[in-house]
Amino acid sequence: MPNIAVKTNVSISKEKELTLKAELGQAIALLPGKSESWLMCSFEDNCRIWFQGGNEPAAFVEVQVYGKINPSAADKLTSKLCSLIESELGIAQSRVYVKYEEVSLWGWNGNNF
């Protein structure tokens, strides 16, 4: 039950969104036991994001996961996410924050896991 939310102050075309969605679907497998079959993605572009005092291209990526996150796997996923944001959206990796959240309660289909 992972969720990846991307917020950025640049525009994301439909083509880039589809590419990002597909790449995130592959990347989530870097976390043990996670796969695209349960992944939810959201994209919010043209946000008002200020980072390091300026509004140059930047992104904030949030990764929520039901259960525990392996720190070494998170390192690999952060590397992949930053690289992906840079290659697809042209945002320098040094202007990307990635936040992880371990969730103990996660609801779906009228019930909690």
What does this structure look like?
It is a single chain. This protein is of the alpha/beta class. It has a single domain, classed as Macrophage Migration Inhibitory Factor, CATH 3.30.429.10. The strands form two sheets. A four-stranded mixed sheet has the order 2-1-3-4, with helices on one face. A two-stranded antiparallel ribbon has the order 5-6. Strand 3, helix 2 and strand 4 form a beta-alpha-beta unit. The radius of gyration is 14 Å and the shape is globular. The termini are close together.
Main features:
4-stranded mixed β-sheet; alpha/beta; single chain; 113 residues; 29% helix; globular; Macrophage Migration Inhibitory Factor
Query: If strands are numbered along the chain, what order do they take across the biggest sheet?
Result: 2-1-3-4
Fraction of helical residues: 25-40%
Over all CA atoms, what is the radius of gyration? 14 Å
Number of DSSP helical runs = 2
Number of domains: 1
CATH class: Alpha Beta
Largest sheet entry: 4 strands, mixed
The first-to-last residue Cα distance is: 9 Å
Instruction: Give the uncertain stretches in residue-range form.
Output: none
* CATH domain topology: Macrophage Migration Inhibitory Factor
Using the 3D structure, state the CATH architecture. 2-Layer Sandwich
Q: Which strand-content bin applies to the residues?
A: 25-35%
